[in-house]
Amino acid sequence: MPAGAALSGGVAGPDALRPLLDAVLAGLADGAALRGGPLPAGGPAGVAALVAAALGDREHRATSATGEPAEPSGQGHPGEALADDGNHPARGRAGEPAVPDDVLRRLTALLTRGSADPADPACAAHLHCPPLALAVAADLAVSALNPSQDSWDQAPAATELETALVRDLAALVGYDPATAAGVITSGGTESNLMGLMLSRDHALGRAGGHATELGGLPRDLSPRIFASEAAHFSVQRAAAVLGLGERAVTAVPVDRDLRMDPAALDVLLKEAVGRGETPVAVVATAGTTDTGGIDPLPQLADIAERYGVWLHVDAAYGGGALLSDRLAPLLAGVERADSLSLDWHKLGWQPAPAGVFLVRRAETYAPLARRAVYLNPADDEEAGYPSLLGLSLRTTRRPDAFKIAATLAALGRTGLGRLVDTCHDLAHHAAATVRAHPLLELHTTPVLTTAVFRYRPASGLPADADRVNAALRRRLLTEGRAVVGRTELPGRGPGRVRLKLTLLNPHTTPAQVDALLATVVAAGQAEERDEAERAGEPEGVLEGVPA
User: Is Transferase among the key words of this record (predicted)?
Assistant: First the structure.
């Protein structure tokens, strides 16, 4: 057998993995040292050259043991990584057989050097957490064994483990585990799609008099989904995938904290019903992507109940608050949702994917029921062999429940809750620092772990603020100094661009948050100086922007 063809499972699997894992760990250390910051400097062109030098240039593609690439000559193409000539750098030096651990170390170093590292305190743009080492190690076991959750005979223990975890998570959100149901998903996008699919089949099947999943969409109905202006874009995408069309989504106004306005929802639902339209779902958000805002769930549940409309809560971000005694009350009312999305690869510190979809009543899952004779034959189920096939949109599905279960077993809700509280404290520290700085402006008080703000240019003009804030963020990316988020507030016209720190690293210190904000200010000042030079403005015209 060729080198590198050993298997990861069986009795011999651990011995085959051990030197390769050592190579991966060495490559991670090599690449992090070469990167020297939160992301590689040079922007897209620099990273493209880095990868091309390692994979695509036949004359200059040799890499050192630490993954240091030579400068690319412009020849070759990254697609040559698939060439079967035995001489590609991903297989070994020209004319020499590949050494798997050497290959792995060099390519891991390349990947690490060219990555944005959420474990770096200056990498704070997205809901992109640094995973716990414990969870990553647990994920290794899953990869080595490669179970698939579409039939019991491919994943006996994993099937039972996921079933138990779903029961525990149902109890965490306030559902009755005996009557709820759910599944582990790839994340909030898949979970939101599932919630809206079940709500579609519930509402349109009831209104049209036939099973929508079998007969398709009734032609004489006008379905409507109601979500806030700050809801995740996956709601529109789900509406398109489900055949409803993005225009079926009605945007409900929000307040300054990007929370849905219940009075506006009531009016919009009343108007839709008056026009003969069919409300399919109200989508509440518990933790908006930009501000962490949480919609008023009890009021929205009251309104949805009054109109007989399915309530889906997207708690992909805010669901992590349920781990914290301090923050859990923010999600009061979530237990009244018909369906719910959670993501443990946000405020749960799991490597992606680690999404969860739950329904309050298991019978509402009926449209997803599926029988495949080679996976879950009826006589197997009658004989006591359980099946998760009818709980997911996917067939092949890895047991991502394992890493979540391992983390909960080791840290418990209390341990994870402390991590949530630490990140919440960091967000409030960031907000206090922003408030105290004359060149920064806070948008709103943090709810979860996100601080939204902007740099204030000397001119004070809204259009200038938008331009400078967008440019300073790109400057930081190009220089490899920081990864800061960018967003735009709802509305029209200039003055809506904001920056954000999404603080998901519980090992970050308040001093490191202050340093990151100082870096943002320095980049803003540098951007203003550069703009003045390009415009040929006289020295001193930008008062308060030091050289």
Answer: yes
